[in-house]
Amino acid sequence: MTTHAQGSPGRTRWRILGIIAMLAFGSVTLYAFQAVGRYQERTTGVSEAAVTEQLAGGDRLVFRNTAMGQGYGRVASVDLADPQGARELTELTCDRVDATAQLTACMRTVRGIPTIFETRIYAGTTKPEAEWPLAGIPSRTRVSEAGLVATTAFVTGHSYAADSFSTETTIKSADGKDHGNLEDFSIQVDGQPLTAVDRNVWGVTFISESQFYATVASGGKTWLVQGDLERRELVSVMQNAECPSISPDHSRIAYKKRREHSGLAHWDIAVLDLKTREEVVIPLEQGFDDQLEWLDDQTLLFGMPQPDTPGDSNVYSIAATANATPQLFVEHAWSPSVVRSAG
After folding, report:
1. Which helix (H) or strand (E) holds 246?
2. Around Cβ 64, how many Cβ atoms within 10 Å?
3. Are strands 267-273 and 252-258 parallel, antiparallel or unpaired?
4. Where are the alpha helices (DSSP H) in 2-45?
5. CA-to-CA dists, residue 16 to 11, 22, 79, angstroms
6. Does residue 128 have a cis peptide bond before it, meaning omega lies within 30 degrees of 0?
7. pLDDT for 175
8. Can you say whether the dihedral through the CA atoms of 283, 288, 292, 297 is positive or negative?
9. Which pLDDT belongs to residue 125?
10. What angle do CA 176, 195, 199 make, to 5 degrees?
């Protein structure tokens, strides 16, 4: 066995090689961090100076920021007059968000042992008003101008395209009143009671303080239903309509419509005139799976995941007319809600 005395050429050589290796590793690590930083800066389009405690006033689009970086998952907003402009980030992190000028509903995952899911309601985005647990993975939420909050969570499964899934949809108010699980309401489909154990309800959109639309599903079919909180009932309006959204003037309702004979689940956009009952279907090449939001009485917004970047998505706009095509509205965004200033 060969040994080297302290300070021998062999040990010195290994020390020098070690130093070179550490310097090389440090350089690579530094380069990697710098590269990640440049990537984050390039993809977020925001800086720490843009972080704010409260959303700015005026007409804004509020959404979940999906740009990779420190602001990932935070509630963000942009001026509706300049949707491609600089965004503001809050400290609030959500999986799904909806907002009015008064309240923000934040559905979120709290990872731990065990992982839990919850809804938090804020006055603006800083003052907690209420919170309650969710039965599963956050899916949909809507806030009414009167302060009602609807939430849908996946109890089993995690996609409306799955063969088998279960949801829980509740309506509550920030002052603590609980209207309960909508599956427990009386459900009428084509004039007949629906009592099947596989019934699911999701995708609420509010009409008034007690009236709303939603989706009911059972036996592989879906229906647009009109709901009444006081009567605790849901009544079918038409078949094959999911995740409804009422227009600002309440004249039309938009929803996703499953394309028949498409094999894998594929949803197009459809718009129903509530007065004439005329339905316009807008085919989408890629399909989509989101609850539509009205930008105004003529334009819809919806989110689409970026297929080449897991966890990232964009918000698109589309005219509520036949043969319209989507246009990029806000990059790196999800769960859009239009917030207009009071008055």
Report:
1. strand 242-246
2. 26
3. antiparallel
4. 9-44
5. 9, 10, 57
6. no
7. 83
8. negative
9. 73
10. 65
